[in-house]
Amino acid sequence: MFKKILIANRGEIAVRILRACRELGIKTVAVYSEVDRKSLHVRLADEAYPIGPAPSRESYLRIDKLMDVARKSGCDALHPGYGFLAENAALPRACVDTGLVFIGPPTEAMEAMGSKTAGKQLARRAEVPTVPGTSDPIENPEEAQAIAQSMGYPILLKAIAGGGGKGMRVVESDAAFAGAWRDAASEAMNAFGDPRVFIEKYLIGPRHVEIQIFADAHGRVVSLGERECSIQRRHQKVVEEAPSPIVTPELRKKMGEAAVRLARAGGYTNAGTVEFLVDADLNFYFLEVNTRLQVEHPVTEQVTGLDLVKLQIAIAAGHRLPFAWETITPRGHAMEVRLYAEDPDNNFYPSPGTIISRHAPTGPGIRLDEGVYEGWTVPMDYDPLLSKLIAWGNSREETISRLRRALDEYTITGIRTNVSLFRRILSEPEFLRAEFHTKWLDELLARPHPPSTPPRPGTEEASLIAAALWHHNQTAKSSDSHTASQPPSSRWKTEGRRQQLDHMP
Ligand code: MV4
Predict the structure, then answer these.
(1) Which of 16, 303, 410, 449 has a CA that sits 20 to 30 A from residue 168's CA?
(2) Cβ atoms 8, 32 nearer than 8 A
(3) Measured between alpha carbons, how far is 152 from 340 in angstroms, rounded to an integer?
(4) pLDDT per position as a tens digit, 170-224
(5) What is the pLDDT of residue 311?
(6) Ligand 1 interacting residues, C-beta cut-off 6 A
(7) What is the separation, in whole angstroms, between the first and last Cα of the chain?
């Protein structure tokens, strides 16, 4: 087993990896940029080293600095987390050169599966269903249009290098093709420096369902079941759950076997996620492979009882997977919401700042993965993910009621958060009936809706009395600034009682 692991990341995921290492008796080395000197991952690690200024290009994306730290501190392995360099094949390559074990797939598997079209070609060879369309980029627009005509509209143009919905255009008719082609190619060029585009049949109202796979270095490949990730805002997942409410045991088996075939075909090892779109008739189509641990991995952990980070470390150290996939059946239901330092009443603008006070929910079925603490300042230089709140229950209904209860317990002052977004989603009848698809949240948010929480009082020194006075004035002025399910009075009562309790001797 490894003695010391370099954690090449920050925030909640660095903390998550640290915790697994601590439980395994492995020493940890953190790295930090100038604005992360006081961050939680730095405080919790056995050792921590600065790697440069705030911009990630000059710190968390500097492979040379990471290798320097690993050599100097005597690490034998590196965990990349997610984001930053996690899916950049140059990182596993550098690790090999430095004599470090990369906790993730081999360089070649990352390259073979990381690109959208390479992944799609591999899927076709492995007889994994793909969306009808091309799996090669098309050079000439006339040829592309002929393909679109023969497929029938609507079609979707997708950038090869795509991500986050950039370089994607739906084309409804032949007349709209030429313009959409130009737009998609120039957007892709601007965003990725690569204008190449391919064509797919456009699926209406699909769901995003992904399969968690694990592969060891001894030929065993397993599926750990699916996660439902259709609740997205502008291509960013905000709520994830396991199992998917629409996936039957038969579909789970079929999708799991397809994902395992693909992983085998790509020579994959370690943790990976195979993304699929699922249509209304429960046909599934391969989308892409994520060659890393995902943000939403905790929902799989909660329903399988496995620690995926420990599994990643064990596999990287050459251990065998200790179970066969036939033995994995999800138990109960888990759901995660991503709490961000952003303002849902102001177009989800990032809201960095200092956390004045914070109260974390606990109790039955609640897990909180976070990288923050009271008094810490959320930097504006990175993704503002604060915490992942995860609930587990025996049924989807119990899980949702626990999550709502935990959201009511969660308070954080000094910064704005998107908590109110989740109160809203978790009380929508369609969400409760699990009737949604990948565009559902964007459509919901496009409908007019009053702000769902009262604005917080002045964030510097929010005393209970000021808050109560403010609230009194607010309710006297208007009564429509809240939803029926969450009257602000009860919220202030809860908060007031807690503050009184906090100050009891
Ligand atoms: C699609 C699609 C419909 N038909 N492909 C968006 C991001 C990229 N990873 C794939 N995406 C989509 N591909 C076909 N042929 C609809 C989407 C899509 C989507 C997919 C997953 C999660 C959220 C989404 C939101 C809008 C559109």
Answers:
(1) 449
(2) no
(3) 41
(4) 999 999 999 999 999 999 999 999 999 999 999 999 999 999 999 999 999 999 9
(5) 98
(6) 131, 156, 165, 200-203, 206, 208, 232, 235, 277, 287, 438-439
(7) 47
Q: 201, 287, 288, 290: which to mutate for ligand 1, most atoms within 8 A of CB?
A: 287
Single out the residue of 379, 434, 400 nearest to residue 244, CA to CA. Answer: 434
Q: Binning pLDDT at 50, 70 and 90, where does residue 267 land?
A: very high
Per DSSP, which regions of 184-316 are E strands? Answer: 197-201, 207-215, 221-233, 236-242, 270-278, 284-290
Separation between Cα atoms, residue 210 and residue 221, nearest integer Å: 16
Among 171, 277, 278, 444, residue to substitute to test ligand 1 (most atoms within 8 Å of Cβ): 277
DSSP secondary structure code for residue 391 in this structure: E
Q: How far is CA 397 from CA 217, 394, 424, 434, in A?
A: 39, 8, 16, 11
Q: Which of 292, 402, 416, 423 is catalytic?
A: 292
Q: Is 292 a catalytic residue?
A: yes
pLDDT per residue as tens digits for the range 292-332: 999 999 999 999 999 999 999 999 999 999 887 777 889 99
Compute, in angstroms, the gap from residue 438 CA to the centroid of ligand 1.
7
- The closest-lying atom of ligand 1 relative to the alpha carbon of residue 202 is 4
Q: Is 442 in contact with 399 (CB distance < 8 Å)?
A: no
